[in-house]
Design a protein that fits this description.
The chain is elongated, with a radius of gyration of 22 Å. It is built from four helices and 18 strands. It is mainly beta. The protein starts with a strand and ends in an 11-residue tail after the last strand. The chain folds into two domains: about 90 residues, Glutaredoxin, CATH 3.40.30.10; about 140 residues, Thiol:disulfide interchange protein DsbD, N-terminal domain (Immunoglobulin-like), CATH 2.60.40.1250. The strands form five sheets. Strands 5, 6, 7, 9, 12 and 15 form a six-stranded mixed β-sheet that branches. A four-stranded mixed β-sheet has the order 8-18-16-11, with no helix packed on it. Strands 13-14-10-17 form a four-stranded antiparallel β-sheet, with no helix packed on it.
């Protein structure tokens, strides 16, 4: 892992020392490398102190140095967290705490890519299902049955994206001569959440400075012989919101 910016070596060292960063921070004060990569932020005025900054982004490389994924934003105030990238590109488990949710016929837990968040960060929140053998739930798009449905309450200061579902399997039910899309075994559903600015979220933080996101999960579990009554369970995520680092080192 390495990061590159148009800041001077002195500025980067001061920042690294303050934040206890141990991976390389590379200085590109004339934005030469930034220009070669074609990621110079052209919306910044040339007479601005910020001129020379790139569009914020991350390249993911394989062992041979080939780019296998890119994560970029038009808005410099928004950033994908490293944990989101690891989940998206490599299928890693959510790094945040897993909280078990009481549910019938299956195991259900909430999780998040990050436990601590800051303004402008883009993270994942996740629902993780574990279904017993011979048990299934119906996937979105099924006809004539009740699919799983994850809804979220609107929260000021948090832009919550749509639910992302894995690829479903087709299950043949010979007794009724139907083939339907289902989920079985281990299933992870995710949503992206973009943390808003401090003014937006300050009023809704709890006493400990955490942001609470709430929703519901509806499903109907079926085994080889029985479809059980539909269930709707409340789900929530607690994210510690960190203040912005507003310290600036003098340019040298």
């Amino acid at each position: 892992m390495a990061a590159i910016s148009y800041d001077s070596v002195a500025v980067l060292k001061a920042f690294a020392d303050r934040q206890h960063i141990t991976f390389p921070l590379l200085s590109d004060p004339q934005s030469a490398i930034i220009r070669r990569y074609g990621i110079l932020n052209g919306t910044v005025e040339k007479n601005s102190p910020a001129y020379g900054v790139p569009y914020p982004g991350v390249y993911v490389l394989d062992a041979q140095g080939r780019v296998i994924a890119k994560y970029f934003e038009d808005d410099f105030k928004q950033r994908d967290t490293a944990a989101l990238i690891l989940m998206r590109s490599f299928g890693l488990s959510a790094a945040g705490p897993h909280t078990t949710v009481a549910a019938k016929h299956l195991q259900l837990a909430t999780a998040s890519s990050d436990e601590e968040v800051a303004t402008g960060q883009k993270i994942f929140i996740a629902l993780e299902l574990s279904l017993p053998p011979n048990m299934h739930v119906y996937a979105p798009g099924v006809t004539g049955y009740i699919p799983i449905d994850w809804t979220m309450e609107q929260t000021p200061g948090a832009a919550i994206g749509p639910a992302e579902y894995p690829v479903s399997a087709l299950l043949r039910m010979e007794a009724i001569h139907e083939t339907v899309p289902v989920f079985q075994g281990q299933v992870r559903l995710v949503r992206t959440v973009v943390i808003g600015n401090p003014t937006e979220i300050k009023a809704i933080l709890d006493a400990g400075g955490s942001l609470i996101l709430s929703g519901t999960f509806r499903y109907q579990a079926c085994d080889d012989r029985t479809c059980f009554l539909p269930e709707t369970v409340p789900v929530s995520w607690k994210l510690k919101v960190l203040p912005l680092d507003r310290v600036r080192a003098a340019k040298q």
